[in-house]
Amino acid sequence: MKNAIANGVKLAYRDLGQRHPQTLLVIHGFPFDHRMWQAQLAGLSNDVRVIAPDLRGAGASEVPPGPYSMDQYADDLVALLDHLDVAQAVIAGLSMGGYIAFALWRRHPERVRALALLDTRAEPDSAQGREARNKAIASVQQGSAAAYADEMAPKLLTPDNLADPRIHDRVREMMAAQPTGGIVAALGAMRDRPDSRPTLPTITVPTLVIVGAQDTLTPPADAEALAAGIPNARVEIIPQAGHLSPLENPRRVNPLLRGFTLSS
Ligand code: MLT
After folding, report:
1. Does ligand 1 come within 6 angstroms of the Cβ of 190?
2. Which of 97, 78, 91 shows the shortest CA–CA distance to 189?
3. Strands of 112-118's sheet, edge to edge?
4. Beta strands in the chain (DSSP E)
5. Residue 145's pLDDT is what?
6. DSSP SS3 for 179
7. Of 95, 121, 174, 184, best ligand 1 pocket probe by most atoms within 8 Å of the beta carbon
8. Rounded distance, CA 130 to CA 144, Å?
9. Are strands 9-16 and 2-6 parallel, antiparallel or unpaired?
10. Averaged pLDDT, 82-92
11. CA dihedral over 108, 68, 246, 124, signed as positive or negative
12. Which of 72, 119, 173, 250 shows a CA-CA span of 20 to 30 A to 239?
């Protein structure tokens, strides 16, 4: 892991395949860190540069006090690109990473070569969703990241992957390792995130929408609707994958991300 100071906050990141001209910046979801992109770091860095940060409050990055916001996360990533002297990258975000990718497009479109939106949505939280975030904040504050990880895992993975210790244990460990301060701040940032639907028609770069066939949190029908709102988007549905498609089925996702990055 390397470290950079972004907006006064220490961010940990991996940066592989630096010799390649095309760069893919991968933004992890919640409550994860850059390790959810392990298979992309290993499988794509022979062909493209892959930059995989831990967001503020996640993984090995610093946990500054909240509140956080999608805009703040996006500005941190642009500060990291500045630090690495990367003018433009293909921006790939999974779930919360997708919410951040929308913010990055709104605030810094000149840094976005193309967008890959994985298992994500443009809608803000509903009133019920915001209420659930507040309950989750209270329960993480009273309990632990590990208890939260046990609650989340069945919602994220397909039943087969949930039963596969090589997948389940990795995902659970990664979630349980997240700092509670960062979890709470991320929940608040997601609760308060803006509606990204008005952003969709403004997206002029090529866009690849990827979704696990068995994603129950952001299902394929939502991915189709998301892509339909973006002028130059296509959808790829990944079999044997739930909400964590690049981790659950990298054999299908990696060629898509490789081809998309190389051709953008
Ligand atoms: C994620 O995977 O980042 C979360 O499911 C996003 C969310 O809770 O809205």
Report:
1. yes
2. 97
3. 2-6, 9-16, 49-53, 23-27, 89-94, 112-118, 207-212, 233-238
4. 2-6, 9-16, 23-27, 49-53, 89-94, 112-118, 207-212, 233-238
5. 87
6. coil
7. 95
8. 20
9. antiparallel
10. 98
11. negative
12. 173
- The pair of three-digit structure tokens given for residue 16, joined into one six-digit string: 């592989």
Host H or E run for residue 233? strand 233-238
* Ligand 1 atom having least distance to the Cα of 243: 2
User: What three-state secondary structure class fits 83?
Assistant: helix
Q: Which two tokens stand for residue 32?
A: 């994860």
Q: Token pair 């608040």 is at which residue?
A: 188
Distances, alpha carbon 28 to alpha carbons 121, 210, 232, 241, in Å:
14, 14, 23, 16
Q: Which residue bears the tokens 């979704």?
A: 211
Report yes or no: 37 and 50 within 8 Å, Cβ to Cβ.
yes
Contact at 8 Å (CB) between 2 and 12?
yes
Sign of CA dihedral 167, 80, 67, 181: positive
Task: Answer whether 249's CB lies under 8 Å from 176's CB.
Answer: no
Cis peptide, bond prior to residue 194, ω within 30 of zero: no
Beta bridge partners of 26: 92
Nearest CA to ligand 1 atom 4: 30
What is the overall mean pLDDT for the chain?
97
Rounded to whole angstroms, the Cα distance separating 13 from 160 reads: 31
Confidence of residue 69 (pLDDT cuts 50, 70, 90): very high
Question: For residue 177, with 0-12 CB atoms within 10 Å meaning exposed, 13-18 middle and 19 or more buried, which class applies?
Answer: middle
Is the pLDDT confidence value at 2 over 90? Answer: yes
168-225 tens-digit pLDDT? 999 999 999 999 999 999 999 999 999 999 999 999 999 999 999 999 999 999 999 9
